Amino acid sequence: MAIDFRETRLRFDTPAHVHSERIGRVRFSGNVTRATCLIGDITFGFKDGDRKFEILSYRLDEVRIDGREVSFRYVFQLADKHGLDDAIEGGLRVVVLAEVEDS
Question: How far apart are CA 87 and CA 56, in angstroms?
Answer without folding.
Answer: 14
